[in-house]
Amino acid sequence: MKQKFDEMHGDAGAGRSVVRPHYKVYDEWLSKQPGDLMRARREEAEVIFRRVGITFAVYGAKDEDGSGTERLIPFDLIPRVIPAHEWTEMEKGLAQRVTALNRFIHDVYHGQEIIKAGLVPAEQIFRNAQFRPEMIGVDVVGGIYSHIAGIDIVRAGNADGSGSYYVLEDNLRVPSGVSYMLENRKMMMRLFPDLFSRHRVAPVAHYPDMLLETLRAVAPASVNDPTVVVLTPGMYNSAYFEHAFLAQQMGVELVEGQDLFVKDNFVYMRTTQGPKRVDVIYRRVDDDFLDPEAFRADSTLGCAGLLRAYRAGNVTLSNAIGTGIADDKSIYPYVPKMIEFYLGEKPILNNVPTYLCREADDLKYVLDHLGELVVKEVHGAGGYGMLVGPAATAREIEDFRAALLADPSRYIAQPTLSLSTCPTFVESGIAPRHIDLRPFVLSGSEVQMVPGGLTRVALKEGSLVVNSSQGGGTKDTWVLEDR
User: Fold this and answer.
1) Which superkingdom is the protein from (predicted)?
2) Three-state DSSP class for 60?
3) Residues 108-124: pLDDT tens digits?
4) Alpha helices of 84-177 — where are they, by DSSP H?
5) Which residues pair with 16 in a beta bridge?
């Protein structure tokens, strides 16, 4: 268990706190803001977000009429502020990690050198639900598989009062949330323009331009002026707002599977002027549903023949088919070894210590300490399929014990980190709430990212679950540029 760490306030001893240097200007401003003004600004933000249509669908939740629910992701008015020197180091660590993960995916589908070296067990690859044998030997442009990665980072306190960053999870398939990062910044600039004259906040608005540049850079080599599209499962998907938003911001077409067809191993989209060749597909559809010829025959979300065109090198999929092999939670513990194996470097960003429940010694430790650990399904997402031991009931712990004994390979466990807190404007006023950070890393002709990312906040007091599907909210993330 790590010490508590607050992003805005440090411990000055004798029960006193001190504002951290990078928050001082903001703290002075905040102290002069009346509570009713902040509440009015929060209501204004909610009205604007609803008008713009910034919502997400909650699977399994129903309105009174039985229809699915569309909800706003709560937006918090108090930003998460990161000083320039911290971001510089984090940026290096993110680039290092994503580069190694891309090398790993290429290796898995080609030489499999890391398996031969005995660093990753073969069964962890070949028996993994995310492994796609169809991708063996398939060359992708630049050897890049995950062009858009969302890396979840948390900070925990140390005994000396400092804080250390850890990577909690790698999202390499279809990471979401970047639209909220962009809209949060626009909202803060609209509500509090004076704050941006007091702080040198690094911009994020150019992300869509960087994304389009990245996608164009990985088009098939024979294409000079590539046509890029965003492939969405459709308007009932929980992240549909983001799909439409990014297509609009990049100035490209938003398409569904039915808008595409394959002829002679090339992909075309139907337009009012006739068929138009498609060169790069930023797909927000999972592997299983991409091509009914190759994967799930009952899928209506993809395009028949897409894998054939892909294997022929006539279209780029971002992210690549089979990328999920590297963001599975059972592979996560091996990432530090990947960095050393492929890059010959020590990891800049550390993993959270992880117990692999498929290993007998680790399983025994986890079963003996269930009340202290976080246990996760290796294929789980969105905060589901997990046990937070210190917050669980005796019944929940015993149910998880039975599940672990029945199929231990489905689970990993980690110490319960005390995620850092950040002051948050809640109903009772300003109070600390736990947060994480998801920077978005783009890999094309180079690895690049906008400063910061999406800060997610657990709005329930004491909760460590920041996912929007579990009641979490978001904050604007400020990386301060050096003056």
Assistant:
1) Bacteria
2) strand
3) 999 999 999 999 999 88
4) 84-108, 113-116, 122-126
5) 13
With H, G, I as helix, E, B as strand and everything else as coil, classify residue 220: coil
Architecture (CATH level 2) of domain 353-415: 2-Layer Sandwich (3.30)
Q: Can you name the residues that pair with 283 across neighbouring β-strands?
A: 231
pLDDT digits (tens, 9 = 90+) for 399-442: 999 999 999 988 999 988 888 999 999 888 899 999 999 999 99
Enumerate the CATH 3.30.1490.270 domain ranges in the chain, comma separated. 353-415
Contact 313, 222 (CB under 8 A): no
Which residues have a Cβ under 8 Å from the Cβ of 150 and sit 6 or more positions away? 171, 175, 176, 177, 178, 438, 439, 440, 441, 453
**Do you find a cis peptide bond into 350, omega within 30 degrees of 0?**
no
pLDDT band of residue 483 (cuts 50, 70, 90) is low
| pTM (predicted TM-score) | 0.91
Task: Give Cα separations from 67 to 49, 61, 72, 233, 240 (angstroms).
Answer: 21, 8, 16, 19, 17
Chain-centre distance of CA 347, in angstroms? 20
Q: Where are the alpha helices (DSSP H) in 192-303?
A: 195-198, 207-217, 240-250
Per the CB < 8 A criterion, the answer to whether 74 and 473 are in contact is yes
SS3 of residue 233 by DSSP: coil
